[in-house]
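My current task is to audit a protein record that another person submitted. My question to you is simply how this chain folds and whether the tokens agree. This is what I was given:
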Amino acid sequence: EVVGRRGWGAFYRLPKRIYANDPQWVAPLLVEQKRLLAPGVNPFFRRGEARAWISRSGGTVTGRIVAFIDPTHNAFHDERTGFVGFFECIDDRATATALFDRSAEWLRARGMDAVRGPVNLSLVNECGLLASGFDSSPFVQMNHTPPYYLGLFESWGFRPSHRLLAYHVTVDDVNRNEALTTRLQRVGQRLLAREGLTIRPLDKTHFDDELQRVTRLYNASMRENWGFVPADEADIAFLGKSLRTIVDPDLISFVDINGSAVACALPVPDVNALPRRSDGRLSLPLLFKLLYRRRTITRLRLMLVGVVPGLRTRGIDALLYHRTITKAIEKGYETAELSWISEGNANLMSILEKFGARLYKTYFVYDRTLPRSGAAPAR
């Protein structure tokens, strides 16, 4: 089990070795990883519990894993499912098996029937194993894993249970579909005139109030999505603190009716595109450098487009897409990732493909039934 400063130091250092020869890997900021796993900081730990382990061979750290239980997930879905995440491992089946076995033992002792992963405490964070698109670097808060991880998971008995998709689009793709953007603009103008809607950017001077609106919209609009877990204001505030320094308020859109937010779009500049030390450490001079160079970012990740259920057939999503595209081009963004998208969201995929967006990365989330105590998992 990972305990103490030295144990956690070994836990956080391992990815640098795993990805030493992968030019596409971008080290997550160490300060953010520590915040995510700090019981006194992350509100997840007010309801859930987690344990972390590392494996060693000859004194060398060879793997790591975190097992956790989210009571909110299990109550909402009427399940007894545990999770694993933060998985990193050398290309060795015995090492991976030992990590999975230890996690399964811990989860089973707490009454879990199944295990899902990889998920880094929440589907809002990095999740899934990369199954295609290894030749490009990940956008902010998206996972990047070696191809051999798929085999390590499947050799223990995990089976893919859901695909998460990432679409990629460029300014040139959008410009080639001028007729579509013109049509979106007309739809948006009619909506604004007919429905009494207003569309506005995020008000950063009232950031906490805006986060409350995001919480309400997220819970209302994402409820039917695969893997959804209701978020409370503390969860969104925790995420917001991570994003506050990088968001561009002009890019974020809220649609209001009579002063009440009914939809939003949340694009985030891709800070992964900024060069930094490969171990993810963030010094004060480097922080100032990142903040200064933020204006040079030309990549964008669209994390969320949410419309409350009763208004989904009104064309509000078209209004949000048009404003996001227009503002992004005005500000010099050249390329965007739209992620992640559930494999079951055929309507959204159809819209994106009309824009010229292409599916370029696929992630697998795995499930397996936990073996009974003393029984070996199927190989």
Summary: The first helix runs from residue 4 to 18. The mean pLDDT is 90. The radius of gyration is 21 Å.
